[in-house]
Design brief:
Among the domains are: 49 residues, Zinc/RING finger domain, C3HC4 (zinc finger) (Herpes Virus-1), CATH 3.30.40; 73 residues, Alpha-Beta Plaits (2-Layer Sandwich). It is 49% helix and 12% strand. Strands 5-7-6 form a 3-stranded antiparallel beta sheet. A two-stranded antiparallel ribbon has the order 1-2. The longest helix has 58 residues. InterPro entries: Znf_FYVE_PHD, Znf_RING/FYVE/PHD.
Length: 203
């Protein structure tokens, strides 16, 4: 039998108790603020029990310990941290350069894209102009239909025009020649326009 240091009562053999691994005192489990399940768990898992007084003393010793001076190993760890920070800064700087290059590339692509669209527009305009002809010397009739007039001219030079061959036909306003202003014809294809020009000598 042993005397419980907490309640100062003898711990009998038939009472549940536990022993401090440091001071070796035996305590009632209630005085140790534990229960049977906790004691069984600690025993089965090899966990040592320290009483409240010993726990306080151990904590005090840890608090009173003088900090250990940095060893070469710990200095190396600190140095590695600095190196990592430096590497991160280098990576961030490189990423910034990549982003700047990407922005420059995007701007260049935008500029090239605009130029391509401009060239395409110019090409379409040239192709469109290539389908135009101007007919002069045809007297104007106030009630005329210009497309019908162009079809009549085409039939005289043996050119068969259908509804889809002419995109547009109109008189070009002119103050100098108000009686016979030029007729502008826009063909749907350059081939039909060239055919018209080839046979215009028959008019």
């Amino acid at each position: 039998m042993a005397l419980c240091p907490k309640c100062k009562v003898v711990v009998s053999r038939n009472e549940s108790s536990t022993q401090c691994s440091t001071c070796k005192n035996v305590l009632h489990i209630k005085c140790a603020n534990m229960n049977s399940d906790s004691i069984d768990y600690m025993k089965s898992n090899g966990i040592a029990f320290d009483c409240e007084d010993c726990t306080k003393k151990l904590k005090q010793k840890r608090d009173d310990c003088t900090p250990v001076k940095p060893t070469p190993q710990t200095q190396g760890i600190h140095f590695n941290k600095i190196t990592i920070d430096s590497d991160i800064n280098i990576i961030v700087s490189k990423l910034d350069d990549v982003l700047k290059n990407q922005i420059t590339t995007n701007n260049t692509l935008t500029t090239l894209s605009n130029k391509i669209r401009g060239l395409e527009k110019t090409l379409k305009e040239k192709e469109k102009r290539a389908c135009f002809i101007e007919i002069s010397g045809v007297k104007k009739d106030n009630n005329e239909n210009v497309e019908t007039l162009v079809n009549d001219i085409a039939s005289k030079i043996d050119i068969d025009l259908n509804l889809f061959d002419i995109e547009n036909a109109y008189r070009k306003p002119s103050r100098l020649n108000s009686e016979m202003p030029q007729i502008v014809v826009e063909f749907s294809s350059k081939r039909k326009r060239d055919e018209f020009l080839k046979k215009r000598g028959k008019i």
